[in-house]
């Protein structure tokens, strides 16, 4: 709890608190950096972890073995003495990342590989598909020789369509082995949407365009037992510090109920949002809610009857920041 409230210690007068309901990304968090510089330091971002993530050791050990056995490697290039050859051990035509946790999980594999062999173990033309700027940044930090593409997609549906188009531009040496199209490796948590596999493997596509997807669950996610208590403690500390304005940035449906309950905005009987509860509890203090996209917005509306103040047009630091700034200047 003390670690969470420490962020209030250097709060400047009239700064707007921004609660980021997420775990801070490593090595750097683009949301924190964006809000620290937005509007000349007017906003003060504080992380309030909602979810805890646990890596699955066995799948990660298996993927490490695959990497060491050249599952991601290219064949041998031609030289003066020999022709180019395929890599018979190659298993994948690319890797898909749609979450920072998946990036972190794969980073734990890369960290255990011989750094002198990285360029040998990974095909320099094998695409690493990412869903947005934050994920792209994390993947690039792995320092693999592979191209990182797809960051403009913004969501799984758009990324799947991008992959279908992009794969057609790749050499068969990257996408095929012995005239057989290689699958894409999709690193996921146990809770995920299936839009990417469904789109890439759709029978509505010509057989030559379909791409097999091999999903590997590398982490598990659950709501942190201390989240509601930590968030309530922050709200109390902010009230004591007489903070006038606060924003809560919600990144996923998980934790929405605990967030609204910590705010005291839920009716005890119906477990739905109560405007009367909010008005009584807030007084002169303003607390606004922003979501990073329509999935979380719709969940709040459908489950709790609550309409957030802002829904980002793009699920990115810039998208959230633009939504908040537009609201602030209304």
TrEMBL record:
Every Tetrapyrrole biosynthesis uroporphyrinogen III synthase domain range: 43-319
Q: Could you tell me which InterPro entries the record lists for this protein? A: 4pyrrol_syn_uPrphyn_synt_sf, 4pyrrol_synth_uPrphyn_synth, UROS/Hem4
User: Protein name, please?
Assistant: Tetrapyrrole biosynthesis uroporphyrinogen III synthase domain-containing protein
| UniProt-listed CDD domains | HemD (cd06578)
Q: Which GO terms describe its cellular component?
A: cytosol
Q: Which GO terms describe its molecular function?
A: uroporphyrinogen-III synthase activity
Give an example GO biological process.
uroporphyrinogen III biosynthetic process
Q: Where is the signal peptide?
A: none
Source domain of life: Eukaryota
């Amino acid at each position: 709890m003390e670690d969470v409230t420490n962020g209030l210690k250097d709060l400047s007068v009239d700064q707007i608190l921004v609660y980021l309901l997420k775990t801070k990304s490593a090595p750097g968090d683009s949301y924190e950096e964006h809000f620290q510089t937005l509007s000349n330091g007017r906003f003060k971002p504080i992380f309030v972890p909602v979810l805890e993530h646990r890596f699955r050791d066995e799948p990660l050990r298996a993927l490490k073995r695959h990497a060491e056995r050249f599952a991601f490697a290219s064949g041998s290039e031609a030289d003066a003495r020999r022709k180019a050859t395929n890599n018979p051990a190659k298993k994948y035509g690319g890797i898909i990342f749609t979450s920072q946790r998946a990036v972190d999980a794969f980073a734990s594999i890369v960290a255990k590989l011989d750094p002198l062999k990285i360029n040998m173990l990974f095909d320099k033309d094998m695409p690493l598909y990412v869903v947005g700027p934050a994920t792209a940044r994390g993947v690039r930090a792995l320092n693999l020789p592979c191209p990182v593409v797809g960051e403009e997609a913004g969501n799984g549906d758009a990324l799947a369509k991008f992959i279908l188009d992009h794969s057609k531009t790749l050499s068969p040496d990257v996408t095929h082995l012995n005239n057989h199209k290689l699958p894409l490796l999709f690193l996921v948590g146990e809770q995920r949407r299936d839009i990417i596999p469904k789109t890439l493997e759709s029978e509505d596509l010509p057989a030559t365009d379909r791409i097999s997807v091999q999903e590997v669950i590398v982490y598990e996610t659950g709501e942190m037992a201390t989240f509601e208590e930590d968030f309530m403690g922050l709200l109390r500390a902010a009230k004591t510090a007489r903070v006038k304005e606060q924003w809560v940035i919600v990144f996923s449906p998980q934790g929405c109920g605990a967030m609204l309950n910590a705010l005291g905005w839920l009716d005890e009987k119906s477990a739905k949002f109560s405007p009367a509860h909010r008005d009584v509890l807030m007084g002169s203090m303003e607390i606004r809610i922003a979501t990073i996209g329509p999935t979380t917005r719709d969940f709040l509306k459908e489950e709790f009857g609550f309409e957030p103040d802002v829904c980002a047009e793009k699920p990115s630091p810039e998208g959230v920041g633009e939504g908040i700034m537009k609201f602030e200047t209304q």
